[in-house]
Amino acid sequence: MTGSRPRIVARRKKGRALDGVVLLDKPYGVSSNDALQQVRRLLNAQKAGHTGSLDPLATGLLPLCFGEATKLSSYLLSADKHYRVTASLAHETETGDIEGQATEYANVALPSPEWLHDLLTGFVGQLEQIPPMYSALKVDGKPLYAYARAGETVERAPRPVTVHALDLVSFDENTATMTLDVSVSGGTYVRTLVEDIARSWGGRAHVTALRRTGVGHLFAAGQTVALSQIASDCHDPDVPDGTALPAWLLPVSQLLAGWVHIDLDEAQASRIGMGQTLGGYPDLPAGSIRLNGPDGRVIGLGQHKPPNGLSPLRLFSRPLA
């Protein structure tokens, strides 16, 4: 007599199946992952991810994705970033910010505001940037900061980055500080950019404050929510778990605001859902394209398949608002 094969029961995921986005105003001194896990626990969400780390010393916009929205995280890692950065023009530090020990001091006069404006213009456009030793970029499977903390310096190849805009907000000769609004391509190190700007006149600098104000088409002004507000709302006894979702848990489509989009009819959406390529799209731009179903909800991302095709890139398991 043969025994029956044991039944395998899938483990049920803990938490609520939430789909949405939180535009967190990350506080100073908290890592991006710690902030993410705090919000995930407060929402009791099954699945969560963020769209690119902010240093613990940085503040500002950190988009947090929940449920199906996590499928978009990797596509926003390379999105343009926008920052307001304040720098001391007195010296460099080993980490490029106020955490590190001073290494080299400036021994030349500061530029005039007019000269500084001209210098900044020269940094707009495509640049080659050497990643800093104190960064999470990995070499041979090991983050650069681990080598730096061990007193080792690793050869790093320059990487292409783009500075889209660089505006001087303030310049104080008495305190030797400057504040800049910066718009850069994903993967740009603002600490390194600040050092390079100061070195262009023979000076030295390090970042004293960094605030991210935008990611792609998302901007912090009027949209972000503080971690303390999330905690307060989630602990509100008048809002029991499982009822109406908070207003700051935004629809997934918020992440895709401003993206190129295509509206599909029912037959087209069905074919895309089966992994098929649609014809009749010769002039699509490169990159990811938002795909809307016949009811206007987002069904996923598509891409141009030359010469005239539209193919699925990443699809949601269900249409999302």
From TrEMBL:
This is tRNA pseudouridine synthase B. It holds the Pfam family TruB-C_2. Keywords: Isomerase, tRNA processing. The keyword tRNA processing applies. Residues 191-256 form the tRNA pseudouridylate synthase B C-terminal domain. Responsible for synthesis of pseudouridine from uracil-55 in the psi GC loop of transfer RNAs. It catalyses: uridine(55) in tRNA = pseudouridine(55) in tRNA. Residues 40-190 form the Pseudouridine synthase II N-terminal domain. Residues 262-316 form the tRNA pseudouridine synthase II TruB subfamily 1 C-terminal domain. The gene is truB. It is an enzyme of class 5 (isomerase). InterPro entries: PsdUridine_synth_cat_dom_sf, PsdUridine_synth_N, tRNA_psdUridine_synth_TruB, tRNA_sdUridine_synth_fam1_C, TruB_C. Gene3D superfamilies: Pseudouridine synthase (3.30.2350.10). One of its GO terms (biological process) is tRNA pseudouridine synthesis. Belongs to the pseudouridine synthase TruB family. Type 1 subfamily. The active site is at D55. GO terms for molecular function: RNA binding; tRNA pseudouridine(55) synthase activity. Its EC number is 5.4.99.25.
